[in-house]
């Protein structure tokens, strides 16, 4: 997160790096235009500045979809400062703009050597911190690191969504369309530079997520919820349920466009969050109410739970067996598996293991990202 004592110019430079790290395509000209907007005083009005940078920085739909949230996250602290202080910064920036040269994508930036070294040191520390947080158990993240972890999750989940998109496009590419290839070559004097492909009529996967939100799963559930929000547009249907002592159908709440609004709706409507655990009863309720509609041989079912059943274990075993017979693939994610020397000896887990196609961990960002391959290869 940006330090409060940085100047406006440094904040804008850092914001450009921040966007580039998240797959925004920005060059020297984009940065000059951003500084020109700031030097004209548009930075004094938060909305005007936000929309101006959005027009410059965003070239793809996914950029437009993410920019507002990124801007709010990065600039919120700065805009809480006194308006008069911002005016002074903008005035000073106007004086400096004529003599400063910028560095982006190979262009030169006149910074003192010490300042360059400090920035390189910060970037190195940032990379090490990101690697550490990626492999840190969600339950062991302290308050200081939580904000940085959420930023890292947002970045890594977005990169994963881009990989999903490319894989789906590649999977839908069939044999070469000779007629269309020849027709396209006419504009290049007969040179077949671009091969046209026929599209396969390949149906998108259908997936059902069942998320344990009991007290022992509280921290893990929050990150899987964000994970599911990223995945939902890459499946033909994605149904999402939470359970603890009661089952809740969460899918209608995912239709809100803003991620924060989704989280607010889930917080208001999932009444059993952080309560007890009756996995078997909730899975039976899922089968009785939604089984005929959301289970078929085209469905992947993912259950995330530590398996600490407080209800009837036999009921849990029978429910999981029924789900497995009705779906194509059943995956169980257990955060406890990521702990050292873990053994699946809990009664709930022992009874469901014979029915599972995959039993994986889900205790940190790295383990959630590995689920990507599991879902795509099914």
Largest sheet: 6 strands, mixed
Per DSSP E runs of 2 or more residues, the count of β-strands stands at 8
Overall average pLDDT: 76
CATH second-level architecture of the largest domain:
3-Layer(aba) Sandwich
Count of helical segments? 14
Radius of gyration: 25 Å
Strand content: 5-15%
Shape: globular
Top-tier CATH class of the largest domain:
Alpha Beta
Q: How much helical structure, as a percent, in the residues?
A: 40-55%
Question: How many domains, as an integer?
Answer: 3
Structural class: alpha/beta
Oligomer: single chain
The parts where pLDDT drops under 50 for at least 5 residues are 1-5, 98-111
**Per CATH, what is the topology of the largest domain?**
Rossmann fold
What topology emerges from the helices and strands here?
Layout: H1 8-21, H2 28-39, H3 46-57, H4 61-75, H5 83-96, H6 113-134, H7 143-171, E1 173-176, H8 178-185, E2 197-199, E3 206-212, H9 218-231, E4 237-243, E5 247-249, H10 259-269, H11 279-294, E6 299-304, H12 313-326, E7 329-333, H13 347-352, E8 358-360, H14 365-376
Parallel strand pairs: 3-4, 3-6, 6-7, 7-8
Antiparallel strand pairs: 1-2, 4-5
Helix pairs in contact: 2-3, 7-9, 7-14, 11-12
